[in-house]
Write a structure and sequence with these properties.
165 residues; alpha+beta; 2 domains; 4-stranded antiparallel beta sheet; 7 strands
């Protein structure tokens, strides 16, 4: 009976220590955020409160594991590119379109490489992007698209082959 009581008491103390640790971590992260934001006040894609919130959430999930099978909201997922297409226009113009899926797609960058090397920074809020290039007749090849979010996480690449006859 006494051993059970001691085990319950130890478990309660461990839980209370975890809570204290989390509070200290949150406090230190908040202080760090304030000092870093003063140094990088003009950067909007650099250090952000969102990154710190992700770190806090990851720490809480580590200290207090839950039984969720899905990724909790607030965790930054890898971006992905969907519906990547190319359309041939007149005069050797080719337009690439697609959609970036991310928590904040408008903060992402799309990189095209291969036959054409382009950086697309103007991603719409709904994730849509578009870019037109000019290719001479007979120049064919593969174009690969990769998205990168503001935390420098990259998507899997997706490719299209252009046959320009």
């Amino acid at each position: 009976m006494k051993k059970r009581h001691k085990d319950k008491k130890r478990s309660k103390i461990k839980k209370e220590l975890r809570i204290i640790i989390v509070i200290v971590i949150i406090f230190l992260l908040a202080l760090m955020s304030v000092s870093l934001n003063k140094k990088v006040a003009s950067t909007t894609k650099g250090i952000s409160g969102r990154g710190i919130l992700n770190l806090i959430e990851d720490t809480l999930n580590y200290l207090f594991p839950n039984s969720y099978d899905q990724v909790p909201s607030g965790i930054n997922q890898l971006p992905s590119i969907q519906n990547f297409k190319v359309t041939q226009g007149v005069g050797g113009l080719w337009t690439f379109t697609g959609q970036v899926h991310d928590e904040e797609p408008e903060t992402c960058t799309v990189f095209l490489s291969g036959l054409s090397t382009v950086t697309i920074n103007k991603i719409k809020r709904n994730g849509d992007f578009s870019h037109t290039i000019s290719l001479p007749i007979g120049k064919s090849g593969e174009v690969t698209a990769t998205a990168q979010d503001f935390q420098k996480q990259k998507s899997k690449s997706t490719s299209i082959y252009i046959f320009n006859s």
